[in-house]
């Protein structure tokens, strides 16, 4: 199990939330599963998982979507990490990020939760903030709109046109992180776009 990575897309369960900004982490995990023709199945850790590989002969990937609400994501994440014997440094959490512009992907390990309750709960459940994060920019709401409402709204029409590219970029970032490490992924995805 030494070369197993757990990749978790944070979000909220159910049809009410599936198209919202807060669920972009799950969009990315869906994309990674689709690239490998994987089908999610129920797991006892209160999540849906696909067991697959980065590519034949490479690292094993466990792609996961918690069935819990965002703010209590930690239980399913820590349960899966225990089940698959994955240390926190190989638990990749993919989540929405208000403080990054839409259409931007950033990667880091550790640090604070930045007001993201799902990330905070994962930190608490894993007992450390030191796990890799693929942060998918959704931007801040316009004007004085409430951020809590913004993350639970569906993407706007203009955003929806760009969304497939953003999700693909974030999925590429996960693959690069697993295959080549954090620095290589940061160099590729933090570079200014042409």
Task: Report on this structure.
- This protein has 194 residues and is α/β, with parallel strands linked by helices.
- The chain has a single domain (4-189), classed as 3-Layer(aba) Sandwich (Rossmann fold).
- It is built from six helices and seven strands; from the N terminus they run βαβββαββαβααα.
- The chain is globular and about 50 Å long.
- Strand 3 and strand 4 form a beta hairpin.
Topology:
Blueprint: E1 4-9, H1 24-35, E2 41-43, E3 47-53, E4 60-66, H2 74-83, E5 91-97, E6 105-109, H3 117-126, E7 132-137, H4 147-151, H5 157-180, H6 182-189
Parallel strand pairs: 1-4, 1-5, 5-7
Antiparallel strand pairs: 2-3, 3-4, 6-7
Helix pairs in contact: 1-5, 2-3, 5-6
Brief synopsis:
The chain has 194 residues and is an alpha/beta fold. It has one domain (4-189): Peptidyl-tRNA hydrolase (Rossmann fold, 3-Layer(aba) Sandwich), CATH 3.40.50.1470. It has 6 helices and 7 strands, in the order βαβββαββαβααα.
Q: What's the CATH H-level superfamily name?
A: Peptidyl-tRNA hydrolase
How many structurally independent domains? 1
* Helix-strand category: alpha/beta
Low-confidence segments, given as residue ranges, are none
The count of DSSP E runs of length 2 or more, i.e. the number of strands, is 7
In angstroms, what is the radius of gyration? 15 Å
Keywords:
seven-stranded mixed beta sheet; 194 residues; Rossmann fold; 7 strands; alpha/beta; 6 helices
């Amino acid at each position: 199990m030494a070369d197993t990575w757990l990749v978790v897309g944070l979000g909220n369960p159910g049809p009410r939330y599936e198209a919202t900004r807060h669920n972009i982490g799950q969009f990315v995990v869906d994309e990674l599963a689709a690239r490998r023709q994987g089908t999610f199945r129920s797991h006892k850790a209160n999540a849906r998982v696909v067991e697959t590989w980065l590519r034949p002969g490479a690292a094993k990937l466990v792609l996961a979507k918690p069935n819990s609400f965002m703010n209590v994501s930690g239980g399913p994440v820590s349960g899966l990490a225990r089940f698959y014997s994955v240390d926190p440094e190989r638990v990749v959490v993919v989540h929405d990020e208000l403080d990054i512009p839409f259409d931007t992907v950033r990667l880091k390990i550790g640090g604070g939760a930045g007001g993201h309750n799902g990330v905070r709960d994962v930190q608490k459940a894993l007992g450390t903030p030191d796990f890799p994060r693929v942060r998918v920019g959704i931007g801040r709401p316009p004007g004085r709109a409430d951020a809590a409402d913004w993350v639970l709204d569906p993407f706007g029409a203009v955003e929806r046109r760009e969304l497939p590219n953003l999700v693909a970029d974030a999925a590429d970032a996960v693959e690069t992180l697993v295959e080549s490490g954090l620095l290589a992924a940061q160099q590729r995805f933090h570079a200014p776009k042409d």
